[in-house]
Amino acid sequence: MSSTAEDTNHKVEAPVAAAPEIAPENPLQTKADELGARGNEYFKEQNYEQAIALYTEAIETCPNERFYANRSFAHFRTESYGYALSDADKAISMKNSYTKAYYRRAAALMALGRFKKALADLEFVAKRCPSAKDAQDKYAECKKMVNKIAFEKAISVQHQEKSVAKMCRDLEFVTIEDDYNGPKLENGQVTLEFMKSLLDWYKNQNKLHKNFAYRILCDMEALLKTQPSLVEINVPDEQKFTVCGDIHGQFYDLLHIFEINGLPSETNPYLFNGDFVDRGSFSVECIFTLFGFKLLYPNNFFLARGNHESFNMNQLYGFTGEVVSKYSQNMADMFTLVYNWLPLCHLINKKVLVMHGGLFSKDNVSLDDLRAIDRNCQPPEEGLMCELLWSDPHPLPGRVPSKRGVGIQFGPDVTEAFLKYNNLDYIIRSHEVKAEGYEVDHNGKCITVFSAPNYCDQMKNLGAFITLKGNDLTPKYTTYSDSPHPSIRPMAYAYSLMT
């Protein structure tokens, strides 16, 4: 079935007539229908921005719940879940029996981790479509998710007392088989030889033995616990420093970065700025590669938490499913605990602040405020930690609600005031797909870098990374196209409602 905005790719058909309420001969309705049809064609071509523009024009010409529902789906595809939610709400307000709009709203709510509200909408859809197997299946799956989260909360006290190290001690490691010829830790330690072997091993679609995988997780928790929420990085005068954005499980593109920019080392340091996993179906390979280099070069290789290093996102967008498929649920639980200790932001030479998302809903936030964040938790839905992981820049002054439904959008005046208050030069952030792999906003003071080219095998964007030197913090940009990868589709392990 084609994935168009008019025909839901979830195979749930609205049981009510989709015909416009205004007579077809009405010239405004005719024009709006033509605009909507053109929008559908752009949607089919995955040109979501143009589709949104045409749906918007159709709405302005002759408002109709169909156009709002279609625009909601297009916003969903661009991960603007807040806008998707708003459009679905509008469609429902115009026609409260419009089943497709409830389905769109459920998808947006699920993407935001608001499972109970999504369940109510899916229940409505299931009742309206009793013979639609897909509707019944999605309702049942969402109900299971709600129950699972309730169970997780019920045992949260036990989890708070648990550490990865303790979990590792409780494991009965299977003896490493004689025929395993993959990478092996040397006396329990990551070495450069191990990392080079691991990259080749993963490139050939092999799996690291769980003995070593568990040990890396144990060592990472111990290391990350020693890190502050804001990590200060000192880059020597002539040394190059590289900042990468989202990787999102695109392992073969991660390899390409190392090919063109060199392997990490004490003289070739890197910062990866969150969203290492999810969506791409080689997230396990990405995360163990990044964790391995962090253990090898703890003072020259840096990792920041993104909004996808969290329980809800991992459940929905594939990382949990991938870990369970390749290892076990126990290991997925361990990752959740380790991610809680990832630093939230980095300060380069006291002048450049790097975070995954962006700035804040209030003025006069200081670096000491960021240092004081207690990060050992799942990301909250508001506050400094939430906004560090979720916020986005926008071109107009001031602050507005986030297009994502979480965090805020902040203007150039907000950036300027924050930099002045903290005596900083500029900020680097990630979190958004950019056609060229990077974008410079707010008079050069807010830079976005995104390192996953042709995101999800469909966005056709370049990837990019930033390099700078200690005595010259002027950013330089390197862009690149996507690399071939094995024929495993993105989101192969994702929660089925999100695919």
Automatic annotation (TrEMBL):
Chain spans, region Disordered: 1-28
Coiled coil (residue ranges): none
GO molecular-function term, one example from the UniProt record: metal ion binding
Biased composition (Low complexity): 14-25
Documented EC number(s): 3.1.3.16
Active site: H308 (proton donor/acceptor)
Signal peptide feature range: none
The protein's name: protein-serine/threonine phosphatase
Species the sequence originates in: Anopheles farauti
